[in-house]
Amino acid sequence: MARIVIVGAGVGGLATAARLATTGHHVTLLEQSDTVGGKLGRYVHDTPAGPFHFDTGPSLLTLPQVFHDLFETTGAKLDEYLDPVPLDPIVRHVFPPGGPTLDSCADSDEFAARIAAAFGERAAAQWRRLWRQAERVWTASERDVLRRRIDSPRDLAMLAWRLGDLAAIGPGRTLRGLGRAHLSDPRLRMLLDRYATYAGTDPRRAPAALVAVPYAELTFGGWYLRGGLSTLADALLTRCLDLGVVVRTGVRVTRIDAAGGRVHGVRLAGASAPVPADVVVSNVDALTLYRDLLPTPRRLAALTDRSLAGFVLLLGVRGDSGLAHHTVFFPDAYDDEFDAVFGAPGRGVRARPAPDPTVFVTVAADETVRPAGHEAWFVLVNAARQGTAAGAVDWRRPGLAEAYADRILDVLAARGVDVRDRLLFREIRTPADLGTATGTPGGAIYGTTGGLLRPPNRGPVQGLWLVGGSCHPGGGLPMVALSAQIVADSIGPAW
């Protein structure tokens, strides 16, 4: 039996703890916040009409089979803890000019029929051809990448992909290039481009392999958890406690002891003695790990590519808007948004708040999260990360957040959804707020990355492992859960 300390009780830390406890290890989970869940956050706003409950992180559960496997492996059933609700549409896309719409769904034939009805048979035929390629990319990725350790670029190069799979993935091609090669309708290209933001990147730079992301969502479906996505963190915490995991919240790890090239334990703020450990699993951002907990400057150079961040409004709205669970309102000029969010520091162009951004609105038809006669709106726009460098925005600048919140409400009104006279309240969450709440540098949604190849799960010293969205296989709830599986399988059972 190994003494295992997990630093961070996000979904990755919770899932790893449950898996390792199931195999007989003594597991201690340490979290600096007073609650677990990490970026799977929640917020409650009380009003005289009643409480509004918001998910402040993910709003969609994809690849549900990953979570069914997680619960079954730890001796339970997902449906015993959670109430998954399939969504149709998964996302309603509202395109300019004039607002034509397209609803995505988990039936490929039905979705192609919806494309044909909206944009014509030629557009639908092109989508079907792209979808056949996306299937091959997904199959190769799921088989050879997402469920195994990738410790180096050499490991990735040595994977036994068939030549046909490599051609489908299109090494060197961007997601934007893939869309232009297959889709003539600019609105379908826009729809495909948006999936680059799922990985926190610009579609003009994102690898074509990310076509696997829409394939997974639109093949296996998108799901909502009644009561909010944050109930997943509650369920995982319950599994951990039932399995004997020691969970300590409100404690901050300041250092991982690794003398002699192997871990010995962790040090806590305000504590005189370290917490001993044979194995340490880090569920904090990779940059934070190497820079603050286990300084390894030689590894920091590869961790400079941070994902985009998000500017969020939490709105209490009177009445019924009639919106789908998820609605995306696209701008007239999509590239202008990415020019603003990422800037061009090499050309002296600073990042800035996008004046006409894509607006993503989540409105759950769930009576448990809002008072009767009201709606709880989660509004998200892509944003530059927090900072003062050319590729960032100082969201703490006085007046900036309030002014940009006003701008987003004006943009929604211009796109046909004006709620300014129906607001009961609004709360603002900037990238600076996310960075403070979760310890993520700059408030980057998907953490620090080295591009497509993220930091490996095996740490630089013996007994150290990385889990979560900033390491392999990537960000998003199912990828984080798969990283937990990779780490737990690598550590192995106690017997």
Automatic annotation (TrEMBL):
Q: Which GO terms describe its biological process?
A: carotenoid biosynthetic process
Please indicate which superkingdom the organism of origin belongs to. Answer: Bacteria
Q: What pathway does the UniProt record associate with this protein?
A: Carotenoid biosynthesis
List the molecular function annotations (GO) for this entry: oxidoreductase activity
Q: Report keywords, A-Z.
A: Carotenoid biosynthesis, Oxidoreductase
Database matches in Pfam families: Amino_oxidase (PF01593)
The record ties this protein, via InterPro entries, to: Amino_oxidase, Carotenoid/retinoid_OxRdtase, FAD/NAD-bd_sf
Instruction: Show where the Amine oxidase domain sits.
Output: 12-297
Matching SUPFAM superfamilies, A to Z?
FAD/NAD(P)-binding domain
PANTHER family attached here? PHYTOENE DESATURASE
Family, per entry = Belongs to the carotenoid/retinoid oxidoreductase family.
Q: What is the name of this protein?
A: Phytoene dehydrogenase-related protein
Task: Supply the source organism for this entry.
Answer: Salinispora tropica (strain ATCC BAA-916 / DSM 44818 / JCM 13857 / NBRC 105044 / CNB-440)
